[in-house]
Write the structure tokens for this entry.
Amino acid sequence: MKDIVIISASSSPNSRLNGILQFVKEKWTNEGIKVCQVNIGDLPTEALIKSDFNNEEIKEALNKIENSIGVVIAGPVYK
């Protein structure tokens, strides 16, 4: 069974956004759905800026997304 990938663009691991994403992840997991998460803040900054698609961490994140059955993208809203 393929995963649903949650992509978080939050810069803080303790943000309300990540709290909501954790809730969703737990709910789907309890329903038997496989869920994995990609945190943009955990990816190497230089590889992201330079679009280094040969970077192993970037490759791994892209592979998760390409092989998923669904993707949820969430980012913070600043007032």
About this structure: The mean pLDDT is 92. Residues 16-30 form the longest helix (15 residues).
